[in-house]
Amino acid sequence: MTSNLQLNPRRLFNLLKAELLIGKRNKIMVAGGAVALITAFNYLTVVDGVGNNAKYVLQTIFPFVLLGGGAIVTSLCFNVLNSPQGRHAYLSLPASHLEKVTSKWIQTAILFPLITIVAYWLLSHILVFFSATVYDVHQKPLPLTGNLYNGSTGILHLLKLYLISHAIYFLGAISFRKFEIFKTALASLILLLIFAAFAFGIFRIIFADVFVGMEIQRNINVNGSIPNSQQMERWILGLLSIVGPIFFYVVAYFKLTEKEA
User: Fold this and answer.
1) What is the DSSP letter of 56?
2) pLDDT score of 245
3) First and final CA of the chain: distance in angstroms?
4) What gap in Å lies between CA 57 and CA 37, rounded to an integer?
5) How far apart are CA 160 and CA 166, in angstroms?
6) Helix (H/G/I), strand (E/B), else coil: 141
């Protein structure tokens, strides 16, 4: 157990380097395909769309690129464990379980979102310049600071959501064999519904006076005892972005340890 908790920087760096170089041609092709799809979608919007449809399209699709792409990449990060030969070869690598988990975490939780944000920012500026020069359509590129088109979501907010999502799909990548992304999404939905029902039950008990049946009374003065929806959203998101990932990462480590048993 002690050896599996070792974290040797040099060994971690060598493992990270080796994993990044594995299948680099396929990774480049996938990245190129993603760029082509984004470019094609933006082109069709610029040619056929007018007004805000074309102006903010690059900002609109970015959350889907970051969160959706992250879910796919994270779900596939441990796909080597799906075959007995691959599992044996991976678990036999000269690295502790903590180093293996940390290497995958660095690739999917740090490198992927950073590379995606920088690459998309550059691509959005290129496409904005192209649209303005060729089609005289003025679009908005991805802003690295401030909010996106809807005024309520920024890069930092998306990164918090990404961290929560990443922790869930990271655990799912280790726990499930094949179709990890779909199984993780289904399991997450079921757990979310259970958690929502439990949370509502607790809320219903604590603030029983403001309920009529199962509905909250309107126009009732509770002297600030119930926080508004925006405050609650910030509190819940802040709590989940800290506690949730830590819990899922710890479970993921022990799940990887079980694979060797």
Assistant:
1) S
2) 84
3) 12
4) 13
5) 10
6) coil
Q: Is the distance from CB of 141 to CB of 134 less than 8 angstroms? A: no
Distance CA 121, CA 118 (A): 5
Mean pLDDT of 96-106: 90
How does DSSP classify residue 76? Answer: T
Does a structural domain hold residue 209? no
99 is a domain residue = yes
Q: Is 93 helix (H, G, I), strand (E, B) or coil?
A: coil
pTM score, whole prediction? 0.81
Q: Which two tokens stand for residue 11?
A: 């060994």
pLDDT tens per residue, range 131-164: 989 888 888 899 888 777 766 678 988 998 899 8
Q: Is 211 helix (H, G, I), strand (E, B) or coil?
A: strand
Measured distance CA(167)–CA(244) in Å, rounded:
8
Q: How many domains does the chain have?
A: 1
Phi, psi of 212 (to 5 degrees): -120, 105
Residue 232 lies in a domain: no
Question: Would you state the pLDDT for residue 89?
Answer: 79
Strand partners, 216: 211
Element housing 94 (H / E): none
Which residue stretches of the chain are H helix? 9-21, 24-48, 52-55, 57-63, 69-75, 84-91, 97-105, 112-130, 155-175, 180-206, 229-260
Domain hosting 250: range is 3-180+245-260
> For residue 105, how far is the Cα from the chain centroid?
12
Q: Which two tokens stand for residue 103?
A: 């290497």
| 188 found inside a domain | no
